[in-house]
Design goal:
Elements (H helix, E strand, L loop, with lengths): L1 H67 L3 H12 L13
Length: 96
């Protein structure tokens, strides 16, 4: 009788230990997977913040250019420099 009780107790402890071990392993893998996802999102956030900074700088430069393009004198000077337009009576000499 004592052997049967001892055997049942051992079996119960074994299955309880096995069940606990399985739960711990599954929980550990789940937590590890979530940590990897969090790390990936953190790195993506850093990259997107850098990209946002670059885009804000570019936007600022484009705003400055847009403001400059409202000035007719600037447009005339830009066209002369970039596209080699000239005023009446002007000659354009292109030097290498």
């Amino acid at each position: 009788m004592a052997k049967k009780k001892n055997k049942k107790a051992r079996r119960r402890i074994f299955f309880l230990g096995l069940g606990s071990f399985i739960i711990i392993v599954v929980t550990t893998f789940s937590i590890g997977r979530y940590w990897v996802e969090i790390l990936a999102k953190y790195q993506e956030k850093k990259q997107l913040e850098k990209k946002l900074t670059r885009l804000k700088e570019k936007e600022e430069a484009l705003k400055v250019d847009a403001d400059k393009l409202q000035d007719p004198d600037y447009i005339a000077r830009y066209a002369r420099e970039k596209y080699l337009y000239s005023k009446d009576g002007e000659f354009i000499l292109r030097l290498p």
